[in-house]
Specification:
Elements (H helix, E strand, L loop, with lengths): L4 E5 L6 H11 L3 E3 L3 E2 L13 E2 L2 H9 L3 E7 L2 E6 L8 E5 L2 H9 L4 E7 L3 H9 L5 H18 L5 E4 L3 H19 L2
Parallel strand pairs: 1-7, 1-8, 2-7, 3-4, 8-9
Antiparallel strand pairs: 3-6, 5-6
Helix pairs in contact: 1-6, 4-5
This protein binds guanosine-5'-monophosphate (5GP).
Guanosine-5'-monophosphate binds next to β5, β6 and α3.
Length: 184
């Protein structure tokens, strides 16, 4: 049987990926969905951060119904493949708010977690520090403001990433409560 779906969203530069990695280290019953994207791999980015594909391959997969959700933002496609039915682990989808909305509108049961930055200055520093040019950083900051606005329309639990270990522990506890609430 497939596990629960846990949607994790948040503006770029809030450290979602680091928090999710910490969560996976501490919780063997969690797995992360590997998204597909048509964007270029960043310098130093892990090969398995995404399944990096061409636009043609992505559009063929859309037509074949191979995504649970997908979206087009910052000039590229991003999508979550339909999860394997025989994996009992809970599956984390690290996706944007539009993707989360699709999951919600399609009636999938899911837990929604929104990770945010403790301050906009810290978010800008993190974005600048990962190698994107200044205009991309501005674009991501503006995108973050829109994500916060859209997130207010979905049942997100909001968590601040002031400290990776603390934030991951808070999310683990939210997930444990969700599991309990679904098993009664
Ligand atoms: P980045 O290019 O910085 O890795 O990701 C840009 C945005 O795409 C982030 O907000 C991230 O959450 C979102 N994203 C990553 N994977 C997916 C996905 O599979 N579906 C959707 N809808 N958004 C995704």
């Amino acid at each position: 049987m497939a596990g629960h779906i846990i949607v994790v969203s948040g503006p770029g530069g809030v450290g979602k990926g680091t928090v999710v990695s910490q969560l996976l280290l501490d919780n063997a019953e969690l797995a992360v969905s590997r998204s597909w994207t048509t964007r270029d791999q960043r310098p130093g980015e892990a090969d398995d951060a995404y399944t990096f594909v061409s636009e043609d391959a992505f559009e063929s997969a859309i037509d074949a119904g191979e995504f649970l959700e997908w979206d087009h933002h910052f000039g590229n496609y991003y999508g979550s493949p339909v999860p394997a039915a025989n994996d009992a682990r809970d599956l984390i989808l690290e996706i944007d708010v539009n993707g989360a909305r699709q999951i919600h509108e399609n009636g999938h049961a899911a837990l929604y977690i929104f990770i945010d930055t403790p301050s906009l200055e810290i978010q800008r520093e993190r974005l600048s520090g990962r190698g994107d040019p200044p205009e991309k950083v501005d674009e991501r900051m503006a995108g973050g403001a829109v994500e916060r606005e859209l997130a207010s329309e979905l049942p997100y639990v909001h968590v601040a990433n002031d400290d990776v270990a603390r934030c991951a522990a808070e999310i683990a506890s939210i997930i444990a409560d969700y599991r309990d609430s679904r098993s009664v």
